[in-house]
User: Which sequence fits this backbone?
DNA sequence: ACAGAAGCTTA
DNA sequence: GTAAGCTTCTGTT
């Protein structure tokens, strides 16, 4: 060994005890063998020997050794019989781990050292001295204060649980004395655990102060009479002997006779197969994977190796892991699955689903059994466990349902059913009205906690399971964490059960699958006016609530995930649902600029217009009624004024619908016209010009909508808070609102929308030759339809004829009925029925399509899109004819609307990649069912449009090669109105 | 304070 | 005739 070399000495025995108490209990799946300390040890050694960036040490060692206590009997017992005499026997589930850690050390191909009559600390001191004499540096892997006396210019310590180096400054900070005075300090303070007496009444603070004052222990004992405090002086004088013997006990021997020289500690590359054999035996799956990757070993080629296990009933002390074990058993290579599922080989996914469901409901949920994580070490331990299992469910608690505004309050995770914990981060105490509420003590600072969590949440080998992932994705992204990979239980449920009764929220899923009602938020934090914010919730209650979420999420995942495979829906989930989540999260985070001045001006104009109409309406009515009240309005119009044609709603009220009022207006009545106009103006004002500015984010100054992925039955998205999928476009007045949606300076908005996508889907799935041809020719589809039906040439076709054909085309998409078409066209039902009959004669494929869809839905209870998305209609067999008819229409529509929704989803999923590949900076902002809105710098507009169009028009490929081309219109402008 | 109905906006 | 969300009014809790 030479200058520049770096020796790592691991305090193996110290690590075992510390890891045992700090890490959550973990057992080998196949037989329940306790392994948490072994796993912690293996992870630590692997980290330390692999990459300097893994740890705070920042250096990969050239030499490495692991050192253990030989037995509890050492020279110190001869010196002082009571030394370590009050140590109780180690916990039962720790005993087998002593031997396993030694075996792990050998599997790592590392020196495993112990010497009879000495403690590990003495060997460490000895090798430290030898390394120092050779001019090399040493790092002791331990945080034991007994070893701090060794710290110096070439010797540091490293705390593997806290990932922290301990050098001279850290020792001084912690104990108030430099390392060379640690012996004297320990001599004074003693150690109750090791039964080192020390001087009664002297603790670390006093000891440090006395050593500062007198220099060292000898000087202190010689001049003890000078101590001013009576009690302290008397105690030191009376216990001087105890102090001296304590000093001998805590002084490490650095001249233990050793057989191995430092040169035998040169760090070797790991023997892949040997190490993997051991790790497989221990069933450390994710570490096995990492080691296999790093060593280029195929774990499938390696058989699990036999290990020797010492049983608690045959072990006779804490240090029994050496020599021949009294009893040993060879453990066979484990299977990959837990015993309950081990028999599944060759079984169907359906059977696995059934097993999982049984298992999920078998173990009851106990909200009292969850853990509150209040310090970084415990958090790290849970993370280590999650890293090991490779699967973790998590959930965040925050201050707002809006992920763009939400402040983190806490975070929960679950690593196995029933094993869940909550990490409070920002809980406050008291009602906070006087001093702003005190922050509850013992919460890990948010930054630190996120720093610890980030590697887990971003680790490619750990699957994160979340219910309603997008919310968490947005919140975590705001904290610089990109969660991946992930599963979303809400989306799995949506893929499995869209259309079946009940939603896909956690409470509903928990009751449906686990037969368990989780704690309701309103029971903890109140609701409405009495709502207090989650940060006011008592941490024990918050733990029960939040950890339960993680626990339930994990259990749901175990139940639901296998059902995807059993029902052949894996690819729908993996290709249409899951990848869209981060896409939407990014869109929501970006938001869109809204010009508040435009809205404010419009609002003023609308108010004026509405006020004028109000005056005129009051004149006509003769009193100041509430125009917004359909009840009052109906009474006035059809009661007092006796207008004709009144009809009743299902609650017996007079109907005052726009359609009805329009009809009256057409007959020359003045009042209904004004009411319709008033409604339009007040609707625009209240829903848009007045409400939208309230959604402008205080920091980003943009509007961030929220897209729901699992809200519709057909696969469409929905938008809320605010809904940006129903911004007016049909009337001139309404369109003005769109001019307020603008691009940032130097940018343009690009709007790209599919032309007639649902009719194209219809032409494709129903295989209608005339429609396919019309789309292939780029012809006017409604004119062609009219021409076919009414034998009128397309050239010079009257607008009314085309309008009727258009209504029929849309009617088909909606699952046509004579009643509906008659309403739409304001024609008698018989006439509408005749149109439909005619239509089916000209396009018999459409009648076949409708009949086939109804029959399919009736047989299976669901229909599918061309990409395999399933939409359920449980009431399709209802004996109620109108219920049945409604379900039939909905199922006909669902295939078309759902397929179109799938197509635009596919486009959205591919869009960001395509733009990036083309080196374009355009960013997707909005989706409105068949339209995508982008924002891009002016200079790139021309290059962006073809890329966007290409992705959208080819979105069905390669899964489905459509027999009808998709067509996309795209335009750029400064605002949404002009771009659309 | 909340729920449902009516009405209106979008694709 | 399909699929959504938001505002206002109204009656109940």
Assistant:
């Amino acid at each position: 060994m030479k200058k520049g070399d770096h020796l790592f000495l691991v305090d193996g025995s110290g690590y075992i005890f510390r890891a045992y108490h700090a890490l959550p209990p973990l057992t080998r799946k196949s037989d329940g063998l306790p392994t948490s300390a072994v796993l912690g040890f293996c992870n630590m050694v692997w980290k330390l020997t692999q990459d300097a960036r893994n740890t705070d040490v920042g250096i990969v060692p050239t030499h490495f050794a692991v050192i253990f206590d030989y037995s509890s009997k050492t020279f110190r017992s001869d010196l002082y019989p009571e030394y370590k005499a009050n140590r109780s026997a180690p916990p039962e589930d720790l005993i087998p781990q002593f031997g396993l850690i030694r075996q792990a050390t050998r599997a790592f191909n590392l020196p495993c050292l112990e010497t009879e009559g000495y403690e590990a600390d003495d060997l460490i001191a000895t090798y430290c001295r030898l390394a120092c004499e050779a001019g090399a540096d040493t790092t002791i892997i331990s945080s034991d204060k007994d070893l701090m006396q060794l710290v110096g210019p070439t010797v540091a310590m490293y705390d593997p649980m806290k990932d922290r180096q301990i050098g001279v400054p850290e020792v001084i900070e912690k104990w108030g004395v430099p390392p060379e005075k640690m012996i004297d300090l320990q001599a004074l303070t003693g150690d109750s655990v090791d039964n080192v007496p020390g001087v009664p009444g002297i603790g670390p603070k006093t000891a440090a102060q006395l050593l500062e004052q007198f220099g060292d222990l000898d000087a202190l004992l010689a001049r003890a009479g000078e101590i001013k405090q009576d009690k302290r002086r008397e105690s030191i004088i009376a216990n001087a002997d105890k102090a001296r013997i304590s000093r001998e006990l805590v002084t490490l021997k650095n001249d233990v006779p050793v057989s191995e020289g430092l040169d035998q500690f040169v760090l070797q590359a790991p023997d892949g197969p040997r190490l993997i054999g051991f790790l497989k035996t221990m069933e450390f799956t994710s570490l096995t994977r990492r080691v296999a990757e790093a060593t280029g070993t195929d774990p499938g080629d390696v058989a699990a190796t036999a290990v020797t296990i010492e049983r608690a009933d045959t072990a006779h002390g804490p240090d029994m892991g050496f020599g021949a074990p009294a009893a040993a058993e060879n453990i066979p290579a484990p299977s990959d699955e837990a015993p309950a599922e081990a028999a599944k080989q060759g079984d169907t996914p359906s059977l696995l689903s059934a097993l999982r469901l049984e298992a999920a409901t078998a173990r009851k949920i106990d909200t009292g059994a969850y853990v509150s994580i209040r310090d970084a070490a415990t958090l790290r331990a849970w993370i280590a466990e999650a890293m090991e299992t490779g699967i973790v469910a998590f959930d965040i608690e925050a201050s707002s349902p809006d992920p763009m505004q939400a402040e983190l309050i806490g975070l929960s995770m679950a690593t196995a059913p029933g094993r869940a914990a909550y990490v409070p981060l920002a809980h406050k105490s008291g009602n906070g009205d006087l001093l702003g509420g005190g922050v509850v003590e013992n919460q890990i600072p948010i930054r630190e906690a996120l720093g610890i969590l980030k590697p887990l949440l971003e680790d490619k080998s750990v699957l994160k399971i979340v219910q309603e992932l997008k919310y968490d994705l947005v919140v975590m992204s705001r904290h610089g964490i990109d969660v991946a990979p992930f599963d979303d239980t809400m989306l799995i449920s949506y893929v499995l059960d869209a259309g079946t009764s009940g939603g896909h929220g956690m409470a509903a899923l928990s009751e449906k699958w686990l037969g368990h009602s989780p704690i309701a938020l309103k029971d903890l934090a109140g609701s409405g006016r009495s709502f207090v914010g989650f940060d006011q919730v008592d941490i024990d209650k918050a733990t029960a609530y939040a950890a339960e979420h993680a626990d339930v999420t994990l259990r749901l995942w175990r139940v639901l995930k296998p059902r995807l495979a059993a029902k052949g829906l894996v690819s729908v989930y993996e290709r249409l649902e899951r990848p869209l989540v981060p896409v939407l999260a990014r869109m929501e985070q970006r938001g869109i600029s809204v010009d508040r001045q435009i809205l404010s001006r419009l609002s003023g104009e609308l108010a004026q217009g509405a006020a004028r109409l109000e005056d005129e309406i009051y004149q006509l009515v003769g009193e100041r009624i509430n125009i917004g009240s359909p009840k009052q309005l109906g009474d006035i119009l059809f009661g007092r004024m006796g207008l004709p044609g009144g009809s009743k709603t299902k609650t017996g009220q007079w109907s005052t619908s726009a359609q009805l009022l329009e009809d009256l207006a057409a007959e020359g009545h003045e009042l209904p016209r004004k009411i319709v106009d008033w409604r339009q103006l007040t609707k625009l004002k209240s829903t848009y010009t007045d409400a939208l500015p309230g959604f402008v984010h205080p920091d980003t100054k943009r509007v961030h909508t929220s897209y729901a992925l699992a809200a519709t039955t057909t696969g469409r998205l929905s938008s809320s808070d605010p809904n940006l999928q129903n911004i007016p476009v049909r009337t001139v007045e309404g369109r003005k609102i769109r001019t307020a949606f603008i691009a940032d300076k130097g940018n343009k908005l690009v709007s790209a929308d599919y032309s007639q996508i649902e009719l194209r889907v219809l032409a494709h799935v129903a295989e209608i030759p005339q429609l396919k041809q019309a789309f292939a020719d780029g012809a006017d589809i409604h004119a062609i339809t009219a021409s076919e039906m009414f034998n009128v040439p397309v050239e010079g076709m009257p607008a009314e004829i085309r309008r009727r054909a258009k209504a029929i085309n849309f009617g088909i998409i909606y699952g046509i009925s004579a009643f509906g078409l008659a309403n739409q066209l304001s024609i008698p039902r018989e006439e509408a029925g005749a149109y439909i009959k005619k239509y089916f004669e000209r396009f018999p494929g459409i009648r076949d399509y409708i009949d086939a869809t109804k029959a399919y839905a009736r047989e299976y209870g669901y229909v599918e899109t061309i990409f395999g998305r399933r939409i359920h209609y449980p009431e399709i067999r209802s004996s109620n004819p109108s219920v049945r008819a409604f379900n039939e229409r909905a199922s006909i529509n669902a295939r078309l609307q759902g397929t179109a929704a799938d197509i635009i989803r596919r486009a959205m999923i591919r869009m960001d990649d395509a733009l990036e590949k083309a080196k374009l900076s355009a960013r997707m902002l909005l989706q409105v069912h068949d339209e995508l809105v982008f924002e891009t710098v002016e200079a790139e507009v021309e290059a962006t449009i073809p890329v966007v169009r290409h992705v959208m028009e080819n979105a069905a490929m390669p899964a489905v090669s459509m027999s009808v081309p998709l067509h996309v219109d795209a335009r750029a402008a400064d605002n949404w109105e002009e771009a659309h």
